[in-house]
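Quick one: co-fold with calcium ion.
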Amino acid sequence: MGFNHFIKIHENDNVSITVNAISAGTVIMDDVVANENIPQGHKIALVDIAEGEAIIRYGVILGFAIQSIRKGDWINENMLQLPTPPSLDEMEFATNLVTDLPEPPVKTFMGYPHPNGGFAGTRNILGIITTVQCVTGVLNNAVKRIKQELLPLYPNVDDVVAINHAYGCGVAINAPEAAIPIRMMRNMVKHPNFGGETMVISLGCEKLTLEMLLDEQEILPENVLILQNVNGHDAIVAEMMSMADSKLKKLNERKRVELPLSDLCIGLQCGGSDAFSGVTANPAAGYAADMFVQAGATVMFSEVTEVRDGAHIIGERCVNEEVGRKLVSEMKWYDQYLEKGQVDRSANPTPGNKKGGLSNIVEKAMGSIAKSGTSPIVEVLSPGERPTKKGMIFAATPASDFVCGSCQLSSGVTLQVFMTGRGTPYGLAEAPVIKVCSRNNLKDMWGDLIDVNAGPIATGEATIQEIGTLLFHEMIEVSSGRKQCLAEKYELHNDFTIFNPAPIT
Amino acid sequence: MGFNHFIKIHENDNVSITVNAISAGTVIMDDVVANENIPQGHKIALVDIAEGEAIIRYGVILGFAIQSIRKGDWINENMLQLPTPPSLDEMEFATNLVTDLPEPPVKTFMGYPHPNGGFAGTRNILGIITTVQCVTGVLNNAVKRIKQELLPLYPNVDDVVAINHAYGCGVAINAPEAAIPIRMMRNMVKHPNFGGETMVISLGCEKLTLEMLLDEQEILPENVLILQNVNGHDAIVAEMMSMADSKLKKLNERKRVELPLSDLCIGLQCGGSDAFSGVTANPAAGYAADMFVQAGATVMFSEVTEVRDGAHIIGERCVNEEVGRKLVSEMKWYDQYLEKGQVDRSANPTPGNKKGGLSNIVEKAMGSIAKSGTSPIVEVLSPGERPTKKGMIFAATPASDFVCGSCQLSSGVTLQVFMTGRGTPYGLAEAPVIKVCSRNNLKDMWGDLIDVNAGPIATGEATIQEIGTLLFHEMIEVSSGRKQCLAEKYELHNDFTIFNPAPIT
Ligand SMILES: [Ca+2]
Ligand SMILES: [Ca+2]
Ligand SMILES: [Ca+2]
Ligand SMILES: [Ca+2]
Ligand SMILES: [Ca+2]
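Sure, here it is.
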């Protein structure tokens, strides 16, 4: 395979991106010569583009030229005017349902059967849920001691994790949008990696009551500790330890068994994206995702603001009108949410995205959607909702890495695959996170933070299928507990971050 | 002093509250007999109240009777209809400026002079600011090692604290309301307890750029580490440790000296309030606050939704029209913020408040305002703003304990006094928190979590002045580092929680 210097994706594209930074005078292809120095991953005009004409990449219009652009010019983010977003009222559904998905080389993994049915666990964790941040201080003291004194007694248990968060009190708990944070919390209690053991720490006077969090029959002294009923700090820590001890005893009985991949629930997201993300890491993840879907697994992608400009592309992949309607309603909700805050979808791209060559949200969207492969979309979820179908799912969440990660956890993912172009040490305490980078120099630089390098796709040294298959195997190894990903090795844990669109009071 | 069983505050009140739970048949006063069992801290009708008639406590209308109430009946939260809130357009300012404040028994304390002028420090802490949550995992690994390996070498430094938070990326950074979180972050860098040493950890591609956080001349390699420029996890941890080492060296030179109380900045808030909060703990804190103000200190109270129903009472205490106008604008902003979320001020009270006898937000407001004593209000701050005046200040923040605490930290408080009725183990990593309880049985139960008991005021065993003076001395001892409060002893640290009314993207 040859070595690429420039990547043109679609035959209609009038730009290509640079695989490495180039100097003025470099010959791009045939009769195109760079008019100036161009940074890595940035766009170069392949033809003259007149003011107002479309700039095309991925075969779609990224925007319209604000000034006239000469063949060989660097096209940066200040040279495009954003097109109007696809209309949510004129969508077509189920017109692009791909059925020839790649065959998975493996059909099972070693996982923890979930006691209540549904998804399997990939880790065996004592998850301690808090109803409100007030309890954080005492709980952290107890967790330190639980990890030191109790966890070593239960060798089959991987970790003890306190789900501290900023929700629970001082919030408008009766606001319509409070449904989102409450659902996130409810579903976290039942995360597959927590093995059906419920340990909830409540203060006693908070707005997020036990009745909102648990089913009535679960509200038992063995599952719930209410601090205002216990005699002070030392007594609270003692109670927490005794509760943890009996939960750890039960968790220690869990055993990995061979399970079909249809028991797996996987989340995909990207963060710190660059222009390579959409041609290397994300499509490779999409290829792996297609294999998991073909094996019957549940795979979700998210990040509403980031895929909004490709809504029509997602809509065509929705299996039916009902799924499509849910997609439209989630996207409309988000449009209105941004509007209330006096911003729009252009608020998404970061300085890092732009430095990485992503000129605007349209270009970012095309790359972001690539991670979902080609599978039909069987269901659309509101933030933190649990799937009812198996297959590829669009889980509507913010694009914020930690908020998306937390929403996907609430939706039940037990493995997350995270694609990055600029690089992030992101990780979760509740599930392993495999990090995939989009370019070789990030892997060279961050060897101990990046699990899989998709950079060779950009240089032409590997295909999307090859890296996708490599990633597939890595996902099986990590899910089966035969391998730790680097975020686990270094215990890189981002905080559980609730999506609360309702007011703080 | 006698022992109270029932507390009637104002001569016009037609209710009193029970100091302890009472049974049906108990004689309240003269000719009033309880018609039913009444929980501790709840209201009892002292006269017959017809349907639609006002229920009065603190001399103000808490609400209107939904049904007719007989003398001796228990009045619970379902029996009142909320009055309309005080109009923000017809406020009177500067009509109640009290000048005879109680004299402070002490006029100095032992504090750390702040290198940039302004407020003094009460603790000597290496505060490590993050621009974005992405860096949390690696930073926490570094902090663990810094505390174990470096901190013991610098005996004059109290602690190393990472300011992790959920802001920085995946947020609408250009939204009008983003001014609040950005200001909070900017001001935290300069917290007096951090001694003017700047240590900022950035990822490199986030939306909250270094330029938004720091002044241009502070953006130096010695103050800022950008992870995307460092070669992976282990190298990042090593760089963080070397940076921390040079900062700790400088902090270790800080020495406590005798300073006037006018160098102190104190924050007041309450949480988990009950019907006693407004007659014991809060007025005692208000008395102590008046003494600090008399000594020239800066003292702030907050919690907009909670004091909204007493806006007119705060307005009368504003020193002039300009301060009053800022009060109105902050309160209007909050009214609109709640309205956008389809809720109103009635969203504030918690189930715990109600269980504790607080029927609604009017009753809670009267108790909440009591913590500010009687001093004239010299300034009103937007959330996270720094004061420009000394004296009593209204810092407009949410009432949420951790959000209010974080906003007050950004405003520069180096000591917080926290009043509670129901009990909370709340604490902050960045400044000591003295906890004051409103009733004896909470102190009995939570002896190792409550620093000061204001309960004897309810039973008549102590006066507001006595407990207020006791609290004043406790505040001096803790500020001077001669005493640790219980939240410090147990390292009870609530997370720094940014107030971000703008959308997540
Ligand atoms: Ca993304
Ligand atoms: Ca993301
Ligand atoms: Ca309060
Ligand atoms: Ca509060
Ligand atoms: Ca935390």
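If it helps, Chain B has a mean pLDDT of 95.
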